[in-house]
Amino acid sequence: MAFPVFVPDELVVPPPSDHIQNNLVKHLQMKDNVFSSFEYLPIQDSFILQHLRKKKGKEVVDFIMVVTFQETEASSKDGTAMDVIKKGICYEGSCYRFLGHTDSQLSTKTCYLMHDSELAIYDYFQTFADFNAISSVSKRSEYIGNLFVGFDRHMSLKENDYFVIDDIKKGRHSFTNGCGYMNMQLATEVKQLENLQYIPSIVKIVYQGFFGTLVARTDLNFVKVEFRNSMKKFSSQNRDLLTNMTSLGILDYSRPYTNGYLGCKDVMLLVDRGIQRDYLSQLQDEYYSLLDNLCTSKSQAAYYLETSGHNDLLKLLNNEGFPSVKEKMLKLREEEMKKIRGEDLKVEAAYNNRSILRILVPKSRVVMAASDPYSLLDYGECYFNPTLSKQEERDFAEVDKVVVFRQSSYYSGDVLVLRLVRKNKDYEHLKDCIIFPTKGGNPHALECGGGDLARDKFFVTWDLNLIPKWHAAPFPYGPSTIAHLGGRIYEQGLQLRFRDRAKEYMNTMFGYPDNYAKQMKMTQRQELAQYFANYDANLISRFDSIFMKYASALGPSCKQCLHLHHAYFRSASILGKGEDLERVIANYEAEYKELLRPETKPKRCCLVNRLVKYGWLKPFFDPGDDVWNIMERRAITFVQQLEKLQEEGAGK
After folding, report:
1. Which of 485, 513, 574, 594 has the fewest CB atoms in 10 Å of its CB?
2. Count of Cβ atoms closer than 10 Å to residue 203 Cβ
3. SS3 for 135?
């Protein structure tokens, strides 16, 4: 094997004295093919870390390293990550080899390495489950990634405290995908663990081989938790592991006052569905005016504090006046500005297409979702009961519809309008979340951009001015019937069973058992390492960039955008089949250079113009209709002006 990659001596710093107690491990960043930084940073607790602690003791953190590859377009093509992962990293004489990563770390090209042999690392994972039975490398990587999911807090859940129940399905779709139940006792324990003032309605968890969300039920009495089969990513037959590793990791939970903000893509999709551009521009102007006056106007400060749920500061403002909260308001405005500038983003993409457009929608929330625990809702309905101020409650009482979508969407049909169900005592304990029905042809969570209930949160607004005027059919997310059946057969690992039977009788082809087992272990390790190293973290940025270019030129419903969206979905589908996304992107990038964009509005017959005028026909996309780009430029100007004023104020 070639020599390992060495960490430069000038970057190395000694570990802090408390690094073992505080889970501080070595963090390396590599830009292009050069190590750019080295420091000790904390890692969260996880199931793999708990297991390694039991095997090697608390000092195991000295054997772990985290590496982030900050790739440019050039370095992603020259195979820098693959070369480093294949050779390993040498630090003070110890060689660190690829260990694994979470699903989210894959998108930032970050992974864990460990000072141990390849075969030992293989055996660590096999303690949890037989991951070899998962034929698809991407699925195997995803399931192993659940062992790395970090959590700051956890509680004990013993084997007799939960059941595993079937999902509610219709055809190839599951209405409960990724969502189980918890009783009120467990919800109360989460409240105490997290020191909350309320009982959370939904909790996102990781537990042994389970991953997903739990929604509170008042009638769940015999066990604390009912997991769904869809939450089970892998099954462990290790009795010692099931008995001793009882940590229920708490990843997230439903929260009040999680105000919604519109980004560039959100504005694009809403405009495509007929939302008035003037109203969206008005929202932007009023939000910027609010930020401008947040530290000088008592009435606007009070409005912001009430809308965002800062009740303690609001009480202080009303009792002691504006000077008592001015410093706090300055900090709150700076937090808003940091989010607008995107300073909370940890890793920059090679394609600098990040938007700074961010508009507060007062009548909105970003919430977790769950399937209907009582099966009372019909298709097209939802239950939604956010925590509101008294004035907001009066406005909300008059609403009978809400607009729902995921903010990672690229297709205007992902924006749903659902009827609001109220006054049902069975749901009164469910606050600050949205409940989708388990009836109908398709799950609403799937219609909102694909994925299960535990994936992204949902933007929900009851602003009547944001209800779409034009209908758009939901995209057919999920596998086709044939692909669904084929995938089920493929994931059963029938080819693996055939291979295992064949090797019993064909030693000359497969080798003798001991050698064959060792070879297969090394092959499995290489497959996972290659999958990580070859993953193009910039591909999504490239997709976003070319999609927004065509949307700005021809509209988000043009054939090019629809084709790009379809290719994007197929590349991220369960089986990873369909069109090759990179090839499609490259073709459209080349075609865009030759794209002829009209500079003036084309002439159309008077009948078509009348149909559009009276609302019988959806308006065509014409030059200048890309209002989201106009609003983006307005956002850039606002940030520059506010920063200039802050600099002038600091200089006085």
Report:
1. 594
2. 25
3. coil
Distance CA 371, CA 435 (A): 6
- Helices 137-145 and 513-534, axial angle in degrees (round to 10): 80
Query: Rounded distance, CA 585 to CA 571, Å?
Result: 12
Rounded to whole angstroms, the Cα distance separating 536 from 545 reads 15
Q: Provide the 3-class DSSP secondary structure of residue 260.
A: strand
Instruction: Name which residue leads in pLDDT, 429 or 582.
Output: 429
The residue type of 576 is G
Only one residue has tokens 């007799």, namely 160
State the sign of the Cα–Cα–Cα–Cα dihedral 347, 349, 355, 359.
Answer: negative
Which residue in the block uniquely carries the two structure tokens 């930032």?
Answer: 108
As a dihedral over the C-alpha atoms of residue 297, residue 300, residue 302, residue 304, rounded to 10 degrees, the angle is: -130
The percent of residues in the chain predicted with pLDDT above 90, rounded, is 65
Cα separation, 413 vs 272, in Å, equals 10
CA atoms in the 13 A half-sphere facing the CB of 543: 23
Pairing outcome for strands 225-228 and 162-165:
parallel
CA trace torsion 519, 524, 528, 531 (10° rounding): 80
The mean predicted confidence, pLDDT, of the chain is: 87
What is the sign, positive or negative, of the torsion defined by CA atoms of 590, 593, 596, 601?
A: positive
* Other Cβ atoms within 10 Å of 428 Cβ, number: 11
Residue 557 has pLDDT above 70, yes or no: yes
Go through the chain and tell me how many residues it has: 652
Rounded Cα distance between 171 and 169, Å, is 6
Q: Show the tokens assigned to 97.
A: 């080899």
Tokens (6 digits) for 356: 């700074």
The average pLDDT across 195-202 equals: 97
| Residue that has been written with the tokens 């994936």 in this structure | 455
Looking up tokens 């953190």 gives 61
Angle ∠(75,81,87) on CA atoms, nearest 5 = 135
Q: How confident is the model at residue 37 (pLDDT cuts 50, 70, 90)?
A: very high
In this structure, what token pair is assigned to residue 479?
A: 């596998």
SS3 94: strand
Q: Cα separation of 419 and 417, whole Å? A: 7
Contact (CB, 8 A) for 5 and 89: yes
Label residue 320 by pLDDT band (50, 70, 90): very high
420: DSSP letter = E
Structure-token match 């043009």, residue found: 558
603-612 contacts at long range (C-beta below 8 A, 24 or more positions apart): none
Q: Distance from CA of residue 259 to its chain's centroid? A: 18
For residue 482, name the pLDDT band (cuts at 50, 70, 90).
very low
495-516 as b/e: b if 16+ CB within 10 A: eeeeeeeebeeeeeebeeeeee
Distances (CA, A) of 317 to 162, 332, 507, 596: 47, 14, 81, 57
Residue found under tokens 């925590």: 387
Under DSSP, the state recorded for 232 is B
